[in-house]
Write a structure and sequence with these properties.
The chain is mainly beta. The chain folds into 4 domains: 81 residues, Immunoglobulins (Immunoglobulin-like, Sandwich); 75 residues, Immunoglobulins (Immunoglobulin-like, Sandwich), CATH 2.60.40.10; 79 residues, Immunoglobulin-like, CATH 2.60.40.10; 90 residues, Immunoglobulins (Immunoglobulin-like). The chain contains 1 helix and 33 strands. It is rod-shaped.
Length: 369
Amino acid sequence: MKRNILILFFTILSHIGLAQCPAVADFNFHRICNNGFIQFEDNSHLVGTGLIVDYHWDFDDGVTISTQNPSHNFVPGSTYDVKLMVTDSSGCKDTIIKPVYVAPLPVASFTFTPQNICSSNTINFSSTSTGTGLTYFWDFDDGTTETIQNPSHNLIRGSTYNVKLVVTDSYGCKDSITLPVYINPLPIASFNFTPNNVCSGSTINFSDASTGIGLTHSWNFGDGGSSTGQDPSHIFTSYGCSTKIFNASLIVTDINGCTSSTTHQISILQQPEVLFLEDNDFTFCNTDTSYVQNVATVTNYSPSASCIVSYTIDWGDGSPIDTIFSPFNTINHTYTTLGYHTVVFTATGANGCVTTDIQTATIESNPVA
């Protein structure tokens, strides 16, 4: 009987003790973006009546504190088992331990290539930032922004741009960096030429009018010809009955490797295309040298005959020059002297351009056996 009374007594005391120790320890925490600071927020509560009268924090780094909602500066990069013990007004205690990872603050940094940049060239930016769960915000100082990690961008004006990168980690902490990006201005390619609208075979003189520092020149005349001189000359050749357009271009490169180009159209009046054939290839043999009378028969096969307005033929033997003002098919000439005669055919096109064809007439005697 006495034993049963004691058991009942201790059971009642036990229940009374539970009722008098209602404290339940709990806390939340969040990162403060300042060194390794963490802000702790007490979330303890009572089950029943009474008050929580004491807070004891152990930050697992040798530091303790007794305020309700402390902040603490940890060494970043580690996990700490933070303990909170609360005591209620009856003297009862409760403890909770939570792991707290203190992430390093984000550090913004970036590189870009190329380093020697010409206006309008594509620049490749690469973030080398560190942090947890980073997001990115780029400001290129030209009114445009980007939010990817490694953007490419064109800066078109020769100037210095202050490019800024802001990184934000998964805790909302930010860091930023601004670097100057200098864009070299482009040289300006320009040239003049004279004359224009001239006949094929004429010399065209080019004059560089480009601006820039330490320029080198690369000319392409549009007919397969080229030059690296500053002020070259070039002869354009084209045959036919019309005007041939050549696209002459100049590329200039400055000391920074920046380039610029320009193109002009060159109008060349085509020379008439001629072809004259003599029946005997202008070769005659004579058995009687006391009497030479060889008739050369020349046929006109000129492809441009339709636009040729006149021909002249110098037979090379001192005879008068033949001038023909209308198209011809054949023409005859009699050689009366032995020797080699330079025959000069000249054709003038409707555009005033002239083509000359030179052949040799050979008038000789047969050797005597």
